[in-house]
Structures are given as C-alpha cells and as structure tokens.
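Form 12-C: Joint structure prediction
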Amino acid sequence: MADPTLFDISQRGKRCTRMPAPEKGAEELIPAQHLRAQAPGLPEVSEPEIARHYATLAAQNFNVDGHFYPLGSCTMKYNPKVNEALAADPGWARLHPATPEEHVQGALRLMHQLEAWLCAILGMDAVSLQPPAGAAGEFTSLRVFRAWHDSQGNTQRTRVIVPDTAHGTNPASVARCGWTVTVLESGDDGRVSPEALADALDDDVAALMLTNPNTLGLFEAQVLQIAEMVHDAGALMYCDGANMNALLGHGRPGEMGFDAVQVNLHKTFSTPHGGGGPGSGPIGVTAELEPFLPVPRLVEQDGRLAWDWDRPESIGKVQSWFGNFLVAVRAWAYIRACGADGLAQVARDAVLAANYIRASLEDVYDLPYPGACMHECVLSARTIAEETGVRAADIAKRLLDHGIHPPTMYFPLIVDEALMIEPAETETKAALDRFIEVMREIAREAAADPEILHDAPHSTPVRRVDEVKAARNPILRWQGR
Amino acid sequence: MEFPEDRRYTETHEWAKVEDDLVRVGITSFAAEQLGDVIYLDLPEAGTSVRQGEPFGEIESVKAVSDLISPVSGEVREVNEPLMDDLDTVSEDPWEAGWMIVVAPDDPSQLEALMDAASYAEHCEEEA
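Section 2 - Result
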C-alpha cells in the first residue's frame, strides 16, 4: 500500500515552527473581502515528520544514480556531480536575469561560448539558447522556417513531411505552427525511402522533419540525397537532434544538409531530466535563417557582450528571459570537461554499448530491423508474445524486480511489442552484462512461468498499476478523508 | 483472418456498411486488437461534414493516439454517443455495438474504391 500522505498523518495543532502571535487578529489586518470563510485544509505536522515523509518518498524514487536506466530515446546517462556543484554556485544560481549587462559579463560570456561550441558541434552558423526544451526547439525552428518562407513569398507552403518513426512531438510542433502533417511511411530498411519522399514532395511542402539517427536507432545514410531532393523542391530540412548523443564528434547536421536542428542539452550534455525538467533545447540554424532567430541575440562589440533587441525579422521571444540558464551552465561544464576528443568518445561508447546489447540479445528477442544500430536498439517481444502470451509491457515490469528501469515500450509505433533500449555511454561492461543476463532470464521465465511476468513487478512499493483505469478515470488530487 | 462480407474496408482499418441511403462506420476487430485497451474516444457531432480519407475523430489507447479516417464523404447523421463512455465495447463488439458514426454520403459510389472482405484480410496479413 502507498505511504500515507501528509494529510493522513496531520494532527490538529502540530507545527514545524512556532511564530510569535501577531498583535492584531487577521480580521483587523486583512480587508474583509479578502478573508477566508474557513481555515484552509492544510496538513498540520511537525518538522521531523515532514523530513521523514519526503526522505522515505525520495528513497523510493527510481533514479539514474541508483539504477541502470536504459529508457530508449531519453538518453538517461549518468550526470557528473561537478555540473551540479557549478550550477549551484550562488554566482550563477542567484543571478537575477534583469541585472544590467555590465555586471553579468561572465554569465553572458558563458552563453556566448556555449553558442559557439554548439555551432561547432552541430555544424551550424548560429545558435539560440532560448528554447526551454526539445519540443520547444522544434516549434521555434518551424516558426523560423515559416518566417523565412513568408519572407520569400512562399505562403502556399503549409505542409510538413514527418516520417512514421518520428517522435510524437514532431507532428505536434507542426500543428502548433499552424501547418499540416504528411506522414511518410518508412522503407523496409527502417529508413526514409527517397522514392516515397519524391511522391510526397510538392510545391506546398514547407519542410521535412528528420530525426537522425532515427528512433529505430538507425542512421539515415541517404540524408545527403534526401536533403538535395527537399531543397530542390523549395522546402527546408529540419533535424530533430534528440539523438545527438550518437553523432557527437562524428557527424554534423549542418554538413548533412539540415537548415535547422535542436539539441537537447539536458540529454546529450547531461542535466538530470527524469523529473520532467527544466530542460533546454537550443537550436542551430544556417546563416540564411539567422535573422529570424528569437530576440534578444547575444552580440559582441569591442570585447563586451550585449543583448541586441533590434532584430526586425525575428520571430520574437519564445521563453521568458534568456532560456534555462542553469542547464546551459551544466552543458558548458560538460563540454569543457570532455573536450572535442571526449565528446567523440562519448558517441563511440554509446554506440558500442547499444550494439553490445543488440548482439547479445538478438537470438532471444526479435530484431525487426537487422544490422548494426547507433546509440539505441529496438527489439521486439513479438515472437515471445505469440508463443507465451507475455507482452513487452510484462517484460518491462519484470525488469523493475531486478532493479532496472524498463526500456521505452511500444515505440516507435511501426514495431510491434517494441522494446527500445538506450544504455548510454556511462555504463560499465559489468552493468551491461547484468542487464543482458536479466533479459535472457526473463525470456526463459516467459516460457516456463508466464504468470510471474503477468503479475510483475513483485518487489516494488507499488505493484502493477491499472493503466487503463488510471487513464479513463484519473484522480488528480487528494480526495480528502 | 476472416471479416464480415456485408461491408467495405479502408487501409486504415475502418469499416463502412451500407444501410439503405446511409453508411454506418466503425473500426475493425483487427484495429481494435492492435490498439489494445481504449482509453479515450472523440467522435464528431451530428451535422458535421466529413471527407473521404480525412479524420472524423480520434481514438486513444494505452499504446498510441490514432486518427479515425472517414471511408466516405458526407454529413454525419448519427453518432454513437454512449460509446464514448463505454470504451470496452470498441474492442468487445467492434462490428455491431461498437459502431461510431452514420454518414449520409454525398456519393455512395465512393465505397466501390474500398476493399472487400477478402482484400482486407490480405491487407491485414501483410501488416501483421
């Protein structure tokens, strides 16, 4: 059973801190129309009770510091603690964003350097750090595309081509931009087929959104031909850079013909991101698109950095202030610590780890798209499901009993019973071997005793949850006693 | 795989059944099985215009959100309102009680371009 809430343990009159009583009552201090009719139903508990309550919950939290976390497409790498120490420095952490430029040259320098480094890593001409997450980077880039098309008089271009392996955020960003989506079916090799693309391209197409490597963990090897086709048709190339961990130091979206790319700093450049943020999704664009980037732009004059708001073609602001600055601090520290060689090693190790897992499991699980993968591999439990009734979700839940976070399930949508595994570069060979042994053990269990898997997990504080009931009848707040 | 002979089928797994001047629309048992447990269904209101090949609603399962694609152009005459609160019926009885909308078609001959039961069975074998 779940732990009691603070409301459950509340006892009337308990307090953390005893404040001196005010000289006058609330009735005298607060205008009558702002007074509550009755006291708010806040929990009344002592400080040790609060501390233990949250410490107990925190200890149950599944986290990358405690467990292997191969959640595909999420790049749950270990986040170096030095990044946290730097980001927590009061010089950064307490800096008010409205502080005059002349007093924050250090912070502006960090952002300026990070922009330059990301330009070098992505092969782009200009970077904006403003978008606060990956999907925000997609949306910002599409708005930049739209502004560019408008400037060219291409107002009839309102359609965006998105492969069926894309992250769900891609079509959502297109819709938010006021455009429509054409879904492109992947070829038999799990990649974009130039023939299918040729059929989809027309003079109403604004852009192609391509994830490279794609969500099957496969490199889109024909990207140069694809870019040429898209550009010849008068459209632009967008790279979903969520999988940049596989390319660091080896391939640059700018050289693949992309006009814009977002990079998820919180994933590739290591910020804890299992809790939903804050993230950071800077975008890199070509020189031709630079005038349309969000305001303000960071500019250097005579060795001094300043914000330039005078950008008549800019799409405007997409986030308050200057983006999520402390994530930029962590990314700066990570890039500085790794250096160019270190980043290339990150990609090599991430790709090696994924291929080691793939090669060690492809005799037990289906591998719908055979051959080497990049930073993640997509296995399928389809044969196991047909033979034993055990499905991908059961396998995922069983992993929790072994202290391993489940892979991403049922994505990409074109793979039945998908298990999308991204180990990242920070696991030891021993950790990978243990995962492989556990996955093989689970496959044996599926044949011998499927009920164990249907009922899993057995050892977690909360057992199997009813996802269907939770989705149909969500209870989103405490219901009271 | 076998499917009812009294209706036509789309590649996106909707069925269309002619009933006098009207066309009743739902999703196939193959689609329902692929989706798994349905957690949300959004259907249009009566009076809405729908177009062949374009979405008329949305269905969400624990696995994914999918568009419901209209097999025919016309005006929605009837909507299975109770279905939106009785989502198990979508998977338990997709051919009868799980129907979604009834359309007054602009051009009933549009249905001739859709698959019959045998071709649809082949289509499913290919996808499976």
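Section 3 - Comments
Chain A has a mean pLDDT of 95. The radius of gyration of chain A is 25 Å.
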